[in-house]
């Protein structure tokens, strides 16, 4: 099942982000929140943003995979790979300090996150009426 494969990759990214948060908090001795530390703010933001988008994506991917078994797997692979890359680019852009040079990966990451979610949402809605 495709959803399980991509969920596995996303869990690996999630755990990496989690370890970055733990490491950053230990280095800067910040138990919760991020105070005035911009590095921690970026790492925590990347982690929480990841947590916000991934469940929506996986629900939509699972729903279309289960409800429309005839949908081309290539379409689902392209959409899912784009999403995973989007989460990587976005996390990379946010985990570093907020400099203009990091806006590129962050912006690309958001595009590669939002468009696959929209594509799956529309496909799920379309197939409902067919």
Report on the structure:
The protein is mainly alpha-helical and 130 residues long. It has helices at residues 2-28, 38-67, 73-95, 103-129. The two termini are 23 Å apart. The model has no long low-confidence stretch (mean pLDDT 87).
The SS-based structural class is mainly alpha
Looking at CATH, the homologous superfamily is Membrane associated eicosanoid/glutathione metabolism-like domain
How large, in whole angstroms, is the Cα Rg? Answer: 16 Å
Number of domains: 1
As a percent range, the share of helical residues equals over 70%
Q: Residue ranges: pLDDT <50 for 5 or more in a row?
A: none
Q: CATH class, anyone?
A: Mainly Alpha
Average of pLDDT: 87
Please give the alpha-carbon distance between the first and last residues: 23 Å
**Assigned CATH architecture:** Up-down Bundle
How do the helices and strands line up, and which of them pair or pack?
Blueprint: H1 2-28, H2 38-67, H3 73-95, H4 103-129
Fill in the keyword field for this structure.
Four Helix Bundle (Hemerythrin (Met), subunit A), mainly alpha, elongated, 82% helix, 4 helices, 130 residues
In short:
The chain has 130 residues and is an all-alpha fold.
């Amino acid at each position: 099942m495709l959803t399980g494969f991509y969920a596995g990759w996303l869990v690996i990214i999630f755990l990496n982000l989690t370890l970055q948060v733990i490491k950053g908090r230990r280095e800067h001795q910040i138990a919760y929140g991020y105070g005035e530390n911009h590095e921690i703010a970026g790492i925590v933001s990347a982690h929480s943003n990841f947590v916000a988008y991934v469940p929506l994506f996986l629900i939509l991917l699972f729903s279309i995979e289960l409800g429309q078994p005839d949908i081309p797997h290539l379409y689902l692979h392209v959409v899912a790979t784009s999403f995973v890359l989007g989460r990587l680019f976005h996390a990379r852009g946010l985990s570093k300090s907020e400099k203009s040079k990091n806006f590129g990966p962050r912006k690309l990451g958001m595009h590669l996150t939002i468009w696959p979610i929209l594509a799956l949402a529309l496909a799920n809605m379309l197939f409902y009426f067919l």
